[in-house]
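User: Predict the full complex structure for these chains.
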Amino acid sequence: MATAQYTALANVTLASSAATVTFSSINGTYRDLMLVINGGATSGDNARVQINGSTTGYSMMHMYGSGSSTASTFDTYDGVLLKYNGSITTALTYNAIAHFMDYSATDKQKAILVRTNTSENSVEAIANRWGNTAAITSLAIKTVSYSWAAGTTFALYGVK
Amino acid sequence: MATKELIQTITVGSGGAASIEFTSIPQNATDLLLVLSERHSVDGNTRLTFNGSSAGYTMKRLSGTGSSANSNEYNSGSFIYMEGQDNSYTASIFGNACIYILNYTASTNKSISWDSVTENNSTTADQQIIAGLWANSAAITQITLGLPSGVFTQYSTASLYKITKGSGGATVS
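Assistant: Here is the predicted structure of the two-chain assembly.
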């Protein structure tokens, strides 16, 4: 049985702070995409991924542990949620691994599983849905209020 | 170089092993992925350390047992840990974990994403997700999995992969 192939598609390390990092013209020949983020924000913040420039059709189911409490929620946002409890801090300790499944399919809505970790405040698992059957060709990774901090890394991989 | 490449697999032999250790980790990739299938000779947690260091570890953990959910933390500790596959659990069943270590060669603190499960047929076990941090700017050259007592039993395995990022292809605004 062949093992899954993992291909590096794109990467950036921020030399200075920035509100948005965009991967566009994404190669559609893979099965899934993996987005890996490591870093922080210029001030306590949250973040989303907007697919193909769309701000609609997103919903999520979420669970988190704060180190002392647990919770699970459902909500809708204007993008794929990358954090729910607490903030992405300035300490460059945040990471998120987002798995976009069947991203190039045009016969299904998109499921995105996100594991996100901030050792200062929360460990989280978020099941996101983008209610659109369009193939994913771009990802805009945005902070909500401030900016991604210098030194934050963003890597995109294709999985076959 | 392949994007995702196996560095080494360690399989525990007869008699067990008090620890599983990867040394001289190549420094030519971006992230590491440690995939673990394990069982202990006595009950206890599985502990992760880097470069032989016993300081600077912080974690937040969310766990579910099938009947309840719990969250705990361990700050400025000696290791990052998970509940492992105890000897009291159903025989011949191994728990497993995937531990993703980001930017392991960078001169910044090291951030970890850790998912694991144990299995204990028809009764409670543990499903865990862990946010980990090693507050140390040194590149990771060694990974040690240890136990408070006892050994990893025969047939436990640990596989270490390196993942190499691409370049370019992003717009920053």
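The radius of gyration of chain A is 15 Å.
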